[in-house]
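Good morning C.,

I know you're traveling, so I'll keep this short. The sequence:
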Amino acid sequence: MSKFILGKKLGMTTIYGDAKDAHHVTLVECGAAVSLVRTEEKDGYKAVQVEIQKTKKRKSTKEFRVENTEMKVGDKIGVEIFELGEKVKVSGVTKAKGFQGGVKRHGFSGSPKTHGHKHDLRAPGAIGATTPQHVIKGKRMAGRMGGIRSTSMNLKIVYIDKEKNIIGVKGAVPGVHGTIVEIKSI
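The tokens, ready to paste straight into the viewer:
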């Protein structure tokens, strides 16, 4: 059975190991409850819907497909289902950065700073084509950056606090602090 939980990203910190090595970890405060169980007979597939308190008035829900489960509505899911050293994937919505130019959004180098380039250092340059005589779809140009769903794979759990329901995942996790992320075992 796959393990899964919802949590709120708290931020990043450094944890020092026994061999005096530093682990840069993201702390996630977990604490989800089962809000709905879907069955093959009634819904056509098996799944568990999990919810977490996002703010005082709002809840966030996510449905996870399962093959077999003994979970019931109201069951709490805590960090004790995971083990130290276990590999997980963490999904969430990335930090939204608004409208950005091609240099920041796609890593373009920009124009040279000399020889007639006075005010167009970060301009995209030519974008059209001789044929088909229009801008081709998918051209990398300026636009909104971030704010999309992203998944970080093969992250290792290096810290578990069962009393406070906090998991420490080695590495970076998508989103800003306070956003809801989902953690699944691989």
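Safe travels,
E.
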